[in-house]
Specification:
This protein is an alpha/beta fold. It has helices at residues 10-21, 36-45, 63-72, 87-95, 109-142, 162-168, 172-176, 180-183, 186-196, 245-286, 289-300, 309-340, 353-369, 388-404, 437-440, 464-474; strands at 2-6, 29-33, 50-54, 78-82, 100-103, 146-151, 157-160, 204-213, 219-231, 234-243, 348-351, 373-377, 383-386, 411-420, 423-430, 479-483, 489-496. The structure holds adenosine-5'-triphosphate and magnesium ion.
Length: 501
C-alpha cells in the first residue's frame, strides 16, 4: 500500500515510519513530505492509496490544510494525524470528509494499521456509493418525462427532476416553494384536483390531458401517471408528466382530416346526384326533339298542306328555338357524362378533313345569313387518333362561337398544322372583336359568358367551351385561346396522332 505522510515534525515522522515498517502482514510504502505544497505536488505526480495528514504545517494550518488537500485529490482517503492541541479541528475535518483522526503519541502500530485499512475501505465504499448516486441522478434528471414528488398531505413539492423544471419553466429552487395548486390553473384546479384523486385500491392511475400551468402563465396539457411512494415511513405522491401537446395536435389534425374527408365524400355524392339528375333531365329533353324537328320540317316543306307566310315565319322561329334547345341539351349531357366519367369516347385513327368538312359546310349556311364567311384550310392528309363525333362537336362549338360572338361580315378560317411530333392542331380564327384580357382565363369555365350582361345579342348558356375542353382533354389533347381585343380570337386544339399509352 502506498501512503503519503505529510508531517513537519521529523521526530513524529520517524516514529510513524518506524511503526509502519514493523507491521507484519502488511507492506507499506511510505513517502514523507513536510509541507502541504510538497504533498499536493506528490499527489499530482503519483497515485497514493492513503494520505496521513498533519494539520499544523509550515505552509498551512488547521482545517484548511485538509480542505485544500481534499479539493486537490478528492478520491484519496485521508487520515488526520492530530496533535493534542488541534483535536477539535481534527473532529471537524472528519465531519468534512476525512476518514479518521489519530492523536499522535496515542497510537500504537496495530491501531494505526487498522485505522488506515478501515479508512481506505470506507472511502472506497463511499466512492462507489457516490458514483452510483451520480449515475442515478443523471438518469433521473434527464428522463424524457418530468418527475414530481409531492407531499400527500400538504401538497407541497418535495423533489423533481430537471425535465420537470424545464417543462414548467421554474428553477429547482423555485420548485421547492410551490404546491400543487401553483401548477394547475385555478379554473381547472377543481376538476384537476378531483381527477388527481387516486381511485381507491389502485396503486397507480393514468390521467390524460390534465391542464398544467407554466411559470409564464401559459397552460399546456400533460398525461400524468400518478402513484404513491413511501419514503422513510411517509407517503408521497409521485407524478410522471408527459407533455401531451404533440399528441393532442396530431389528434386534432387527424380529426380535421377526417372531417375534410367526409366533406369531400359528401360533395362527391352530391356531384354524382347532380350529374344523374342533369343526365335524366337532358335526356328527357332531347328525346322529343327529333319528332318535333321532323314535324316542323313537314310543315315547312308543305307536306302537311299549304302554310301562310306568317305561319312560316313562326314555324321558322320555333325551328330555331328547337335547334337551340337541342344543342343545349347535347352540351349539358356531354358535360355531365364527361364529369362523371361516364362519357365513353371511341377514338381511332381518323383522317380529319372528312370530319371537318361537313361541319364547316353545315355552318356556312348560318354564316351566309350574317354575311360572314368560313374558309377551310386543312391538309387532306392529316390524321389523328381521335373520336370523330367528339371532334365534330368541338369544331361545331368553336365555329358557332366564331359566328355568334362576332358582328356581320366576319371572316372565319379553319386551319391545321403539325406543332410537334405525334400531334396535330386545328384552329378556328375569326376577325371579330376578340376576348377581353380579364376574360381569357375564364372562357373555358362552365357557364362563363364574357359580356353576357352587356345588352342584347347571342343568348347562349356558357357551356360550349367547357364541353370542348373536356372532350379535347379526354382525347389527350389541349385547347387554348389567343386573342387581342379588336383583332379577333384564335381557338386552337391539339390531338394526338397515335394511341396514347
Ligand atoms: N370567337 C369568340 N369571340 C369572342 N368571344 C368569344 C368567342 N368564343 C367565345 N367567346 C366568349 O366566351 C364565352 C363562353 O363561350 P361558350 O361557348 O362557353 O359559351 P356561349 O357561347 O356563351 O354559350 P353556349 O356555347 O353554351 O351556347 C362566350 O359567352 C363569349 O363571351
Ligand atoms: Mg358557345
Amino acid at each position: 500500500m502506498k501512503a503519503l505522510f505529510v508531517e513537519d515534525s521529523p521526530a513524529d515522522a520517524a516514529l510513524i515510519r518506524e511503526m509502519l515498517t514493523g507491521v507484519r502482514n502488511a507492506s507499506f510504502e511510505l513517502e514523507h513530505v513536510n509541507r502541504l505544497g510538497a504533498g499536493l505536488e506528490r499527489l499530482e505526480a503519483a497515485e497514493f492509496d492513503v494520505v496521513l495528514l498533519d494539520l499544523m504545517l509550515p505552509d498551512s494550518r488547521g482545517l484548511e490544510t485538509f480542505t485544500r488537500l481534499q479539493a486537490h485529490a478528492p478520491r484519496v482517503p485521508v487520515l488526520i494525524m492530530s496533535g493534542l492541541d488541534d483535536e477539535e479541528v481534527a473532529v471537524e475535518a472528519v465531519r468534512a470528509g476525512a476518514q479518521d483522526y489519530l492523536v499522535k503519541g496515542q497510537v500504537d502500530p496495530s491501531l494505526l494499521v487498522r485505522a488506515i485499512r478501515y479508512g481506505v475501505e470506507r472511502k472506497r465504499t463511499e466512492q462507489a456509493l457516490k458514483e452510483s448516486n451520480e449515475r442515478f441522478r443523471t438518469l433521473f434528471e434527464n428522463a424524457t418525462d418530468g418527475i414530481l414528488v409531492s407531499d400527500e398531505q400538504t401538497k407541497s413539492f418535495v423533489m423533481c427532476n430537471g425535465t420537470m423544471c424545464r417543462m414548467l419553466g421554474y428553477s429547482p429552487e423555485e420548485m421547492k416553494n410551490l404546491v400543487l395548486a401553483d401548477i394547475h390553473p385555478e379554473e381547472d384546479l377543481h376538476s384537476a384536483a378531483r381527477r388527481l384523486e387516486k381511485p381507491p385500491g389502485k396503486k397507480t392511475s393514468m390521467l390524460v390531458d390534465i391542464p398544467v400551468r407554466r411559470k409564464d402563465g401559459n397552460v399546456f396539457y400533460a398525461d400524468i401517471v400518478l402513484s404513491s411512494i413511501t419514503l422513510d415511513g411517509k407517503t408521497y405522491s409521485m407524478g410522471v408528466f408527459r407533455d401531451a401537446t404533440d399528441r393532442i395536435q396530431a389528434e386534432d389534425l387527424q380529426r380535421e382530416l377526417e372531417a375534410e374527408k367526409m366533406v369531400v365524400e359528401k360533395l362527391k355524392r352530391l356531384d354524382r346526384i347532380k350529374n344523374d339528375f342533369v343526365e335524366t333531365v337532358t335526356h328527357e329533353l332531347r328525346t322529343p326533339m327529333t319528332p318535333l324537328r321532323s314535324s316542323i320540317e313537314m310543315f315547312l316543306d308543305g307536306t302537311l298542306g299549304e302554310i301562310t307566310p306568317r305561319q312560316r315565319e313562326f314555324l321558322e322561329m320555333i325551328a330555331r328555338n328547337v335547334e337551340r334547345l337541342s344543342r343545349y341539351a347535347t352540351d349539358m349531357l356531354s358535360l355531365s357524362r364527361l364529369e362523371s366519367g361516364k362519357h365513353t369516347l371511341h377514338p381511332s385513327h381518323v383522317t380529319l378533313l372528312p370530319i371537318i368538312r361537313p361541319v364547316v359546310e353545315l355552318l356556312r349556311r348560318n354564316a351566309r345569313k350574317k354575311n360572314s364567311s368560313i374558309s377551310l384550310n386543312v391538309n387532306s392528309e392529316m390524321t389523328a387518333f381521335a373520336d370523330p363525333d367528339a371532334v365534330s362537336e368541338v369544331l361545331t362549338n368553336l365555329l358557332n362561337n366564331a359566328l355568334a360572338h362576332t358582328p356581320q361580315g366576319t371572316r372565319v378560317i379553319v386551319s391545321s398544322k403539325l406543332p410537334r411530333e405525334h400531334c396535330v392542331e386545328i384552329s378556328v380564327a375569326d376577325s371579330g372583336p376578340g376576348i377581353p384580357k380579364h376574360a381569357i382565363s375564364k372562357v373555358f369555365d362552365k357557364f362563363y359568358q364574357a359580356g353576357r350582361d352587356s345588352g342584347p345579342g347571342y343568348k347562349g348558356t356558357g357551356v360550349g367551351l367547357a364541353v370542348c375542353k373536356a372532350l379535347v382533354e379526354a382525347m389527350g389533347g389541349q385547347i387554348s385561346v389567343k386573342s387581342r381585343p379588336g383583332k379577333g380570337a384564335v381557338f386552337a386544339f391539339t390531338l394526338p396522332t397515335t394511341r396514347l399509352t
